[in-house]
Amino acid sequence: MARESSQRSRPRISSSIELRSRHVTTPRSGADLDSQQLILGIVWYVVFLFSTTCHEAAHAWAARRGGDPTAYLGGQVSLDPRPRIRREPFGTVVVPILSFLLGGWMIGWASTPYDPRWAEAYPRRAAWMSLAGPGANLALVLISGVLVRAGLAAGVWAPPILPHMGQVAVAHGSELGASVALLVSVFFTLNLLLLTFNLLPLPPLDGSGALPLVLGDRAAAAWLRLMRQPAMGLIGLLLAWNLFGPVFGRFYRLALQLLYSGGSIG
Known about the structure:
The chain is mainly α. It has one domain (12-265). It is built from ten helices and four strands, in the order βααααααββααααβ. The strands form two sheets. A two-stranded parallel ribbon has the order 1-4. A two-stranded antiparallel ribbon has the order 2-3. The longest helix has 37 residues, at 30-66.
């Protein structure tokens, strides 16, 4: 978010997407389950931090290309996550950990500074800056999707019987294969989630920042000024949170259909 600142079983794609990560194993002791959850949480957090860093670095890079060096001068055109953590510790550390503990998946945020005078003077450049972040998430979705398809084609992975958050591929026996399948699955799901959420056309999300591409100059400038009002950001986030579940469910089902190319829909 840019701120002013062998035989394979066919997957069944559920008609309702539960935003919860599940992990099915044979019965184990409580200590084993705790260590397994810890490892899973670390995987989710590493993927979250890398994906968010790519997202924000893309914003900063696009802003610099468009003539605003604010984020670049602040060290934001980088894959180093530390500037993001320092700028948004609550969104990059506290909220992701809490969301995983409560729901088994992660959400959070970071931000990239920009000059609002530049955005108002060049609203279309600012719109491309807004789209650059979700574009980075789309690239990570495509890369992880290609890896899943390659694993399925090679026979080392198979589609799960019921795909869910954090598991879009399962390995045949190998612990290493299972670990890689988990990592790629989380990359695919989390970046699809970040892509979908950020493209909602509601302030302060990136989808609202992209609207000047389809507005006239005066309307675009007025829209950018309106977006900077704190009340609009709060209202937009409340609406986005309520709309996101159904919207993401549809996008997730479509993505899984494309990923498996022929999986049946339940």
